[in-house]
Design brief:
elongated, mainly alpha
């Protein structure tokens, strides 16, 4: 099945058509509750432009949606996981800095702020 939707070069025609085919099938199976209208198409394309501007692989987003059964597009999970690991790395560096500033006393060494203060007094 082919669509006549003009696409930017960074959207793979096969990935797009696969997503559109999936959405049309979902529309039939849902008896029209999940409609694939020109407005829905425009909104999905706007989201793909936003994801692309954020540096995401939009073709992976389209494939992920079809694979998982989503009727919308989201940042690829692998890329989300990578950002999460960066945040965890930041948290780890912050904990290391706390240990450094407190002479080895880490944030995981105490259960509450009051216990933290008590340990600092001794």
């Amino acid at each position: 099945m082919t669509t006549d939707t003009p696409l930017p070069a960074w959207i793979d025609r096969d990935a797009w058509e696969g997503f559109v085919e999936f959405r049309r099938r979902q529309e039939r199976q849902s008896r029209g509750r999940i409609a694939w209208t020109s407005r829905a198409e425009l909104l999905v394309l706007k989201e793909l432009f936003r994801l692309h501007a954020q540096g995401h692989d939009v073709n992976a987003s389209l494939d992920q949606s079809v694979r998982i059964g989503w009727t919308d597009v989201y940042a690829p999970r692998q890329q989300q996981d990578q950002r999460q690991s960066f945040r965890q790395g930041d948290e780890s560096r912050a904990k290391d800095r706390v240990r450094e500033m407190t002479g080895g006393l880490g944030t995981g060494d105490v259960d509450s702020m009051e216990a933290w203060r008590e340990r600092l007094r001794h």
